[in-house]
UniProtKB/TrEMBL annotation, chains A, B:
Described function: Transfers an acetyl group from acetyl-CoA to L-homoserine, forming acetyl-L-homoserine.
First-tier enzyme category under EC: transferase
Pathway in which this enzyme or protein is active: Amino-acid biosynthesis; L-methionine biosynthesis via de novo pathway; O-acetyl-L-homoserine from L-homoserine: step 1/1
Binding site for substrate: R220, D350
Species of provenance: Sphingomonas metalli
Subunit-level organization: Homodimer.
Keyword field contains Acyltransferase: yes
Ranges of residues in domain AB hydrolase-1: 46-354
GO process annotations (BP): homoserine metabolic process; methionine biosynthetic process
One function term, GO molecular function aspect: homoserine O-acetyltransferase activity
Name of the protein described by the UniProt record: Homoserine O-acetyltransferase
SUPFAM superfamilies: alpha/beta-Hydrolases
């Protein structure tokens, strides 16, 4: 493909202003993205994939910092459930993040300094508006599908509500139409952990090359527990001790689950910006699709003719199946076509990121049904 | 009562050595405790109440730092379910804590300095051994009952396993016979939050009068979420905003659940020592009563002739009902008399601390049955 807009490691500066739910605007917004597969001449085979809180545009390409495969390489690629032999897949880094799209670590053109905490608080809908501007840039009027898990599912739900004409089908996996008090509480713990770290310096840590890693690691550890099921943790770790085989009667990591969690915290800070963590968790906590539509979730879907596919996992206690059911009820009330399946998995919320043959079949079948 | 050993605000220095599961010993161990009611001439009406992680000996008396009523004032007192008109109730601060019993904040007699992290890692059984030495001091050979919720329930379970001759009945509320991987994980997040705070200074913060309050507050916030049910949080807070009625598009506490959690964290650091939090959570994580008895929980109960009463709450996801069922199965296998009830409550794990008429009736009836 000669069109330089398509391919891996692409970046665009959006023309004009991005209008934000908080009342302000952002100008010169950069969006980092990648595409896989060829856009059909009629543009009808475009699929937008929306990423979760700490993920990025590398849905199907090696992550430049970790060297790991794309976060959904089992789902996206030639011959995969989201088949890039027949589709053009687009995945962009959300605004507020730290993998190339404009976020709190970006330079504020008006000051020449990083935004830090002067970056505006953004919403899930703001992320979606930026994605729509990216599609304008790519010349894609209408998506065959928007697909996302977790926070990606929130964006996927927001798409038909915000741009009802621009999306023909919606896949929402392990997600919710609003953050509950418990969801907010866990995020608030994480934010407080970051902000309690003296190295956070009110968000102005960029010039010091010494970010609030300890606080961000604690935030990640707390969040990580919510991504796994109690049964999955028990199956994987139980009360198994580290290799030295006996309790140390100290505060080193005695139990395998402790060293696993510490590793999760430490490896996260190498790839993620603390302020981005604050802003994106805030966007998720603010998310309440019903509230944006007069308090009735069904209203969010009345303007759209899209088909919907909802998937939940039985051991996901972060966004349990009941949250997907709420969405399905609202879709039914709005007269939308909706298929819904609860899959069985021991892996809790994180199941959607793993190679799950049943999930793959559901997504593949749903996309084929819309052909 | 003229006997100065009995009453409120009592303290004793235990004679001799306290032998610890970790292999070491502690000498000159101080135990802060209180008693309510008169000990019968035959000593047969003594009830030991064991407290939870952040509680203390003030089961039925005003807390000296917070000015709040005793933490179980609804359960313990004249005419209450644990009736101090007819019983002598003893409640002591566990070793490792910070309300008067020897813990990491106490002076190490061998150095004249606070123990800090040179304090030995202790276990639930060590706490129970110290309680037995307190009973020796009080001249109480055998308890009519040992009663505890949460970590207090762990001690209550450990009593008949450690001193089978010294306890005639056991009440275990909202507790477990072992910490799961998820329980350990949440505690590890809390410990990492404390130790990530630069003011922790490797535990040597006592001389600076500037404790690691921020880290401890984050630890408390994370733990507090596990004490409440998702449904309870939703009922109490839902997505309700603070008084200003609209989202602030900033990082102040917008949602009521956020300010509630922040308050929980901040008020906790005024009354609790960070190192004590490390040591007591460690003791709970190490707790596995089966492991102490050849890997078979029933073995823990074979030497005892005590009657058991187990109570769980249906919305407690920290120590869910299944954990109580495990204990009851082991008691049955050991041929012990055990009654068990799961109570319905919207309040999650914390239900045992609240005035719960059904719980009160169960405890009162069980204690009367043993008269």
């Amino acid at each position: 493909m000669d069109d330089q807009r398509f391919g891996l490691a692409r970046k665009v500066t959006l023309p004009g202003l991005l209008r934000l739910d908080g009342g302000g605007t952002l100008s010169g917004v950069e969006i980092a993205y990648e595409t896989h597969g060829q856009l059909a001449p009629d543009g009808g085979n475009a699929i937008l994939i929306c990423h979760a809180l700490t993920m990025d545009q590398h849905v199907g390409s090696v992550h430049p910092r970790t060297g790991k495969p794309g976060w959904w390489a089992a789902m996206v690629g030639p011959g995969k459930p989201i088949d890039t032999d027949t589709h053009c897949v687009i995945c962009s880094n959300v605004i507020g993040s730290c993998m190339g799209s404009t976020g709190p670590g970006s330079i504020d053109p008006s000051t020449g300094q990083p935004y830090a905490m002067t970056f505006p608080v953004i919403t899930i809908r703001d992320m979606v508006r930026a994605q729509a501007m990216l599609l304008d840039h790519l010349g894609i009027a209408t998506l065959k599908a928007v697909v996302g898990g977790s926070m990606g599912g929130m964006q996927a739900l927001s798409w038909p509500a915000t741009f009802p004409e621009r999306v023909r089908s919606v896949v929402v996996i392990a997600s919710t139409a609003r953050h509950t008090a418990q969801n907010i509480a866990f995020h608030e713990v994480g934010r407080q952990a970051v902000m309690a770290d003296p190295k956070w310096r009110g968000g102005d840590y960029y010039r010091h090359d010494d970010p609030p890693a300890a606080g961000l690691a604690v935030a990640r550890m707390a969040a990580h527990i919510t991504y796994l099921s109690e049964a999955g943790l028990t199956e994987k770790f139980g009360r198994k001790l580290q290799a030295r085989q006996a309790k140390g009667f100290g505060f080193d990591a005695d139990f395998q689950v402790e060293s696993y969690l510490r590793h999760q915290g430490l490896s996260f800070v190498d790839r993620f910006d603390a302020n981005s963590y604050l802003y994106i968790t805030r966007a998720m906590d603010y998310f309440d699709l019903a509230e944006e539509h007069g308090g009735l979730l069904a209203n969010a879907f009345r303007q759209s003719a899209a088909r919907f596919c909802l998937v939940s996992f039985d051991t996901d206690w972060l966004y349990p199946t009941i949250e997907s059911r709420h969405i399905v009820h609202a879709l039914n009330a709005a007269g939308r076509a909706a298929s819904f399946v609860e899959l069985s998995s021991p892996y809790g919320h994180d199941a959607f990121l793993l190679d799950a043959p049943e999930m793959n079949r559901v997504v593949e079948g749903f996309l084929r049904g819309g052909a």
